[in-house]
Amino acid sequence: MTINRVRLLSDQPPSSRDRDDSFALGLYRGKVKTQQLFPYPDALDDESKDTVKLMIDPFEKYFREIHDPSQCDLDEKLPDKSLQALKELGGFGIQAPQEYGGMQLKNTQYARLAEIVGSFDLSIAVFMAGHQAIGYKGIVLFGNEQQKQKYLPSLTTGEKIAAFCLTEPSAGSDANSIRSTAVLDEDGKHYILNGNKIWISNGGIADVMTVFAQVPFKKDDSDKQSQAVTAFIVERDFGGVTSGLPEKKMGIRSSNTAAVYFDNVKIPVENVIGKVGEGFKVAMNILNEGRFAMGAAMSGVIRMLVTKTIEHAKNRVQFGQHLIEYQSIQEKIAQMGLTHYAVESVAYAVSNNMDRGIKEFQVEAAISKVLSSESAWNVCDECIQILAGMGFMRENQVERFMRDVRIYRIFEGANDTLRLFIALNGIQYAGKNMKELQKALQQPISNLGTLWNQGVKRSKRLIGIADSQELLEVTAPELSDCAKMITQRVEEFGATIERILLKHGRNIIDQQFILNRIANATIDIYSMAAVLSRASTAISSNLPTADHERVLASTFIDEGCQRVEHNLAEVLRKRNLERFSAYSSITNEISENEGVATTRPLRF
Ligand SMILES: Cc1cc2nc3c(=O)[nH]c(=O)nc-3n(C[C@H](O)[C@H](O)[C@H](O)COP(=O)(O)OP(=O)(O)OC[C@H]3O[C@@H](n4cnc5c(N)ncnc54)[C@H](O)[C@@H]3O)c2cc1C
């Protein structure tokens, strides 16, 4: 069943210490875990900051003087001069190790550059990600020394281009169900690859591809033949590799997206990445590792849109006043500022934590991807609303961003499946705690300690005294009310998880109406905590923007707490649960009718 595949995404290598310190996972046990988020993570030393500072000007100059995103959008192609200049900037090997020709930037350094790229052109952002964040990332993360030496130098310099080939006509979100096969040749020296991949970024231009295929194998303890996804390095020059025409797309038009066909391609056995049968793990790790950069790119988009909006609102006069003087416009612009603060705070919290070596960042990275891609879409929409007719015109370029941003909610884990990933990972973590509690209840005398602690926690919850001390200790005094509000929501969240787990047990994996709302509450609480942490640091460091950041944080947290309350109420109240069954029955009617199932007002 598909949902189990979603659950499979959580099968990460164990790192119990990091797991127990994860803020997002802690929520599912009703705990505020401050270790990873407070004070606001800052992993770069001065030298690393200086290095990336030096790169900002050349990157911005590239977009202002060499690469023309609007023309590329019209031409649906990236010209050689753009690619050549990007090579000279080192843009093909940003994070690859220096020994193979890369710049070996840390995640947070890359995030700063991703912001710039995002704010100018998402087509080139997708081209770059298709090449390095996913295309050859498997070789960097899981490749052996021989593979790295053979492939990375020509990829990091841009002499060759890479792509990541996972999706197939019948396997999108359910990536484990791919049908491409790679069968060991009789000589035992090659795999023979057959299959079709679709919608591959750089698929029409890549020389080297990370390709995922099912390899037949027998488990040691079984006679039955089974299949397991395996990752391969495939060169176009192996023969038997062809590509379809570039897809005609809604957005990111100058990035190449194409089908790739493999017809009896002979792959040397030494081109398996990692181990045979571990391809799904390789794919999921590549995707998890790259999500932080999407948050940073989206943050760059939003920052640019805020500037465009404010410029227009300050200059446009209607009914005798500048637009910016109207409250309706002020509310929209304030929302853009709040959204940007949250998206940026979350993106950099995740990248910094990855740079600190924290291994449990998958849920946080998924939160960043969902939050940032949906926020960027909403901000684009509101920007166009304020620019109105002007926003609808190509000349202004916002319409290009609206088209381009849309894909970010779909690829590298569609947001709907990532919501399930977030909630199910958390619930799996909470479930382990529940097992301990249930065990303790069977032998109450020898487990008095556990039961007493749980009992105290529950009584506090029931009478509404959440223990906010932990969060208060790490929060600026000016934001202590916010710390108390968040702690209260965390307690309610933990209690809600307990109740839904007791009610549904393992069947919770099928309760998507509930899981989506739990994921939304997780995204909100994590974002509020990231914002609280960043604003506290701004206050304690006396930043010139500290007061503005304090107002942003308290407003965002006030609104966020209301959303959390709403989402938690949704999953508990009987009336709402009845509404959920109504959703199913309405869909059934529409499905049976193969379209809208009502009688027309005119009855014809
Ligand atoms: C421009 C572009 C570039 C791309 N680049 C690449 C690339 O470089 N390499 C690559 O391998 N792929 C690439 N893709 C493919 C992309 O990753 C997939 O489109 C994506 O994984 C979603 O798959 P799908 O489109 O088949 O949607 P489906 O999986 O069919 O999903 C359809 C909808 O149903 C939802 N859904 C699916 N399963 C569930 C469930 N269990 N419960 C609830 N809802 C569910 C999804 O969230 C989605 O909203 C690209 C796609 C595009 C459009």
UniProtKB/TrEMBL annotation:
Keywords from UniProt, A to Z, are: Acetylation, FAD, Fatty acid metabolism, Flavoprotein, Lipid metabolism, Membrane, Mitochondrion, Mitochondrion inner membrane, Oxidoreductase, Phosphoprotein, S-nitrosylation, Transit peptide
Which co-factors does it depend on? Answer: FAD
Q: Where in the cell is it found?
A: Mitochondrion inner membrane
Q: Where is this region: Disordered?
A: 1-21
Membrane topology, as annotated: Peripheral membrane protein
Residue span, Acyl-CoA dehydrogenase/oxidase C-terminal domain: 277-423
Q: Which GO terms describe its molecular function?
A: fatty-acyl-CoA binding; flavin adenine dinucleotide binding; very-long-chain fatty acyl-CoA dehydrogenase activity
Outline the extent of the ACAD9/ACADV-like C-terminal domain.
Answer: 477-596
How does this protein assemble?
A: Homodimer. Homodimerizes after import into the mitochondrion.
State what protein this is by name. Answer: Very long-chain specific acyl-CoA dehydrogenase, mitochondrial
This protein's species is Trichoplax adhaerens
